[in-house]
Amino acid sequence: MTEHDSYDSPWKEILSTYFEAFTAFFFPRIHQEIDWSRSYERLDKELRQITREAKIGKRFADHLVKVWKKDGQEAWVLVHVEVQGQFDPDFGYRVFVYHYRIHDLYRLPVASLAVLADENPRWYVDGYDTELWGCTNRFRFPSVKVLDYGKQWEMLESSANPFAVVVMAHLRTAETKETDEKRLEYKLSLTKALYRRGWTKQQILDLYRFIDWVMRLPKDMEAAYHKELFRYEEEIRMPYVTTAERIGIEKGEKIGVRKGKAEAIKETAINLFSIETITDEQIAQVTKLDIEEIRRLRQEHEARSGQQE
To answer: Which segment of 152-156, 162-166, 229-233 scores lowest on mean pLDDT?
Structure first.
């Protein structure tokens, strides 16, 4: 088991990137009523205003999006993804408060949608009710339970929707909390399947990032995972970019904020030396450095490593 399996940030990122696919997968009836030709607009500023006004504590993977219905009417969609390991007893109340605050501040029609990605098979929530002396409030919202998709594995494997992969990765992560060996097996299987679904390079990279982010492994198994992935990419003659961007380029970009672009690129190359299956020519292709520069960096890196030993 890894030190910490974090779900909320990966869910936020993938939901932001593939909001239409998210709606089609989890809420198909609502998806059919939205005019996607007009695209959609994220309302981050308005969401921050609502959460400040609500003052009900921590929120997880919440998104507020402006869409247009097919009749031309503007509508707002508020998405809550509950990604904690245990259920939140105040979840229904939180959805109700956010929903009400949108109405109070902006007086616009809003649909509140909930995805329950927790690990409690008995916890379901789709509303919030209050009653006192005949004064009744009954609030209902559409909600889906990620655990329930575990019974539809064949559908998930054949689906062309990116969120089928998101759900499979989420479920496999929860399933393998106590067994790193099985997680490595599932992680490789899910990653290799990305290449067989006919998706674009960017879709593969986005979903690869989600899988790699949630299905964390110990360092030795991460190395085994990357080694096998490079071998597989070579076998199917796909570009050597997926793992390279994860291990090298992303680290290089972070370093670049502090050290500058040229030094960051060199750091990227050095990061890639740790992968036995990637050649100097491939590193040169990824980093855009001259092959002689790559060889010089490798010699210096190996010399330093030898001195440390």
So the answer is: 229-233
pTM of the model: 0.75
Query: Where is the domain boundary, 149, 167, 194?
Result: 149
| Number of independent structural domains in the chain | 2
Using alpha carbons only, how large is the chain's radius of gyration in Å? 23
In tens, the pLDDT along 17-59 reads 899 999 999 999 999 999 999 989 998 888 888 877 555 555 4
Whole-number Å distance between alpha carbons of 63 and 45: 11
Whole-angstrom Cα distance, residue 292 to residue 281?
Answer: 10
DSSP H helices, 85-161, are 91-106, 153-158
User: Which phi and psi angles does 266 have, rounded to 5°?
Assistant: -65, -40
What are the residues whose beta carbons fall under 8 Å from the beta carbon of 198, sequence distance 6 or more? 160
3-state helix, strand, coil in the chain (%, to 5): 60, 15, 30
- 52 and 183 fall within a common domain: no
Range of the structural domain that residue 274 is part of: 153-308
| pLDDT at position 65 | 94
pLDDT score, position 4: 41
- Helices (DSSP H) in 131-279: which residue ranges? 153-158, 162-175, 180-194, 201-214, 219-235, 242-244, 250-259, 261-272
Q: In sequence order, which residues have a C-beta less than 8 Å from that of residue 234 and are 6 or more positions away?
A: 240, 277
Q: Are residues 139 and 207 in the same domain?
A: no
Q: Tell me the pLDDT tens digit for each residue of 87-139.
A: 678 889 989 999 998 888 888 889 999 999 888 888 899 999 999 999 999 99
Higher pLDDT residue, 306 or 129?
129
Handedness of CA 123, 176, 190, 285 (dihedral sign): positive
Which residues is 116 bridged to in the sheet? Answer: 82, 145
Taking the C-alpha atoms of residue 21 and residue 14, their distance in angstroms, rounded to an integer, is 10
Domain annotation covers residue 3: no
